[in-house]
Amino acid sequence: MAEKTLILNGTTVADGIKANLAARVAALKEKGIVPCLATILVGDDPSSATYVRMKGSACSRLGMESRRIHLGAETTTEELIAVIDGLNGDDGVHGILLQHPVPHQIDERAAFEAIAIGKDVDGVTMLGFAQNAFGMAEYPSCTPAAILAILDYYRLPMEGKHAVVVGRSPILGKPVSLMLLNRNATVTVCHSKTEGLAELVRQGDIVVAAVGKPAFIQGEWVKEGAVVLDAGYNEGNIGDVDYEACLAKASAITPVPAGVGPVTIATLLKHTVAAAERRVFQP
């Protein structure tokens, strides 16, 4: 590892976020409000079940409520939306998270759109996406927000930098591109149909890997001194970048695990607490 390489420790960033939240949760409890995140898991995907447990455990450690709803793999779109509608109308629930992915028979976009904007703490609705595009989202998508939180924590500049985002999903690649653009970066978005991918990545001062393929971003694709943020998590604790190879080239890099992931969860908790505060102070 080059001496200059800064390891962007997401656990440290997340701990700072949660330390700030502890006092806010205590203040809400004094008013009789316990911030509550409802998580919906459809089916029996083991990775999704693990993610839901991690989010629930993080809530518990902060004194928040975690309401877990587990629906069968045969659940229909209509049945799922009915559950979401019930949570929308429950004043004791402040945030709703539908764990991605859902079984193939479900219209995931329709289910996301059923989440009330005031409880869309994961930033998955089209309205939330549009607000994010204009820099006005109260609850931007959590992983993109986590990436910017890491850059801010380590005081890594975005303005004027060329950011290359590999991936264009509506809850990661696209929103992080917009958030970087709003911070005055020049942004190139790459995807499965991009030609000359390696050369484009090599132009990036900031490289965001959000493609969902293990060790996909190669070391020779990364220019000397680039900042590499790995938003991927694949089986075996492997991210979307070839970590050792990119480590040798980057000026700063997130590890996997203990990189973007912990900050994503902390951001979700932050949004849920903010939604609870809004119910108290802006009823």
TrEMBL record:
<keyword id="KW-0486">Methionine biosynthesis</keyword>
<dbReference type="GO" id="GO:0035999">
    <property type="term" value="P:tetrahydrofolate interconversion"/>
</dbReference>
<dbReference type="GO" id="GO:0006164">
    <property type="term" value="P:purine nucleotide biosynthetic process"/>
</dbReference>
<feature type="domain" description="Tetrahydrofolate dehydrogenase/cyclohydrolase NAD(P)-binding">
    <location>
        <begin position="141"/>
        <end position="279"/>
    </location>
</feature>
<dbReference type="InterPro" id="IPR000672">
    <property type="entry name" value="THF_DH/CycHdrlase"/>
</dbReference>
<comment type="subunit">
    <text>Homodimer.</text>
</comment>
<comment type="function">
    <text>Catalyzes the oxidation of 5,10-methylenetetrahydrofolate to 5,10-methenyltetrahydrofolate and then the hydrolysis of 5,10-methenyltetrahydrofolate to 10-formyltetrahydrofolate.</text>
</comment>
<protein>
    <recommendedName>
        <fullName>Bifunctional protein FolD</fullName>
        <ecNumber>1.5.1.5</ecNumber>
        <ecNumber>3.5.4.9</ecNumber>
    </recommendedName>
</protein>
<dbReference type="InterPro" id="IPR036291">
    <property type="entry name" value="NAD(P)-bd_dom_sf"/>
</dbReference>
<dbReference type="GO" id="GO:0004477">
    <property type="term" value="F:methenyltetrahydrofolate cyclohydrolase activity"/>
</dbReference>
<dbReference type="GO" id="GO:0004488">
    <property type="term" value="F:methylenetetrahydrofolate dehydrogenase (NADP+) activity"/>
</dbReference>
<dbReference type="InterPro" id="IPR020631">
    <property type="entry name" value="THF_DH/CycHdrlase_NAD-bd_dom"/>
</dbReference>
<dbReference type="GO" id="GO:0000105">
    <property type="term" value="P:L-histidine biosynthetic process"/>
</dbReference>
<feature type="domain" description="Tetrahydrofolate dehydrogenase/cyclohydrolase catalytic">
    <location>
        <begin position="8"/>
        <end position="122"/>
    </location>
</feature>
<keyword id="KW-0658">Purine biosynthesis</keyword>
<keyword id="KW-0368">Histidine biosynthesis</keyword>
<dbReference type="InterPro" id="IPR046346">
    <property type="entry name" value="Aminoacid_DH-like_N_sf"/>
</dbReference>
<comment type="similarity">
    <text>Belongs to the tetrahydrofolate dehydrogenase/cyclohydrolase family.</text>
</comment>
<keyword id="KW-0028">Amino-acid biosynthesis</keyword>
<keyword id="KW-0511">Multifunctional enzyme</keyword>
<keyword id="KW-0378">Hydrolase</keyword>
<feature type="binding site">
    <location>
        <begin position="167"/>
        <end position="169"/>
    </location>
    <ligand>
        <name>NADP(+)</name>
    </ligand>
</feature>
<comment type="pathway">
    <text>One-carbon metabolism; tetrahydrofolate interconversion.</text>
</comment>
<keyword id="KW-0521">NADP</keyword>
<dbReference type="Pfam" id="PF02882">
    <property type="entry name" value="THF_DHG_CYH_C"/>
</dbReference>
<keyword id="KW-0560">Oxidoreductase</keyword>
<dbReference type="GO" id="GO:0009086">
    <property type="term" value="P:methionine biosynthetic process"/>
</dbReference>
<dbReference type="Pfam" id="PF00763">
    <property type="entry name" value="THF_DHG_CYH"/>
</dbReference>
<dbReference type="InterPro" id="IPR020630">
    <property type="entry name" value="THF_DH/CycHdrlase_cat_dom"/>
</dbReference>
<keyword id="KW-0554">One-carbon metabolism</keyword>
<dbReference type="GO" id="GO:0005829">
    <property type="term" value="C:cytosol"/>
</dbReference>
